[in-house]
Amino acid sequence: MTYVYILRSVNNPDQLYIGWTTDLQSRLKAHNSGKSPHTIKFRPWTIAFYAAFASKEKATQFERYLKSGSGAAFRTRRLL
Questions:
Q1: Which residues face 51 on adjacent strands?
Q2: What residues pair up with 47 in beta bridges, in sequence order?
Q3: For 66, which of 12, 29, 37, 71 could close a Cys bridge (C-beta 3.0–4.6 Å)?
């Protein structure tokens, strides 16, 4: 399974991070331990949303959609 996830900063709740992984728990630990330069500034993170996909291709398509303008509107209205 491949997961698309949205993280929310605990200290700055307006900060979100969207990504994909095959191991959700270890990826969250990596974000919170500072191993990802994109998320180190707003640690710690919690999982606000995740979805599982059978294929990596579908997961990455959904991740790109969530990062797009219409995907941002969808994520605000439907997911968060």
A1: 4
A2: 7
A3: 71
Beta strands, E only, the chain:
2-9, 16-21, 45-53
CATH number for the domain that contains residue 72: 3.40.1440
- In one letter, which amino acid is 6? I
- Cα–Cα nearest to 43, from 54, 35, 51, 34: 34
How many angstroms separate the CA atoms of 26 and 35, rounded? 11
pLDDT (tens digit, 9 = 90+) per residue, 11-65? 999 999 999 999 999 999 999 999 999 999 999 999 999 999 999 999 999 999 9
Question: Domain of 43?
Answer: 2-79
- What single-letter amino acid sits at 58? K
Which pLDDT score, from 0 to 100, does residue 44 have? 98
**What's this model's pTM, rounded to 2 decimal places?**
0.94
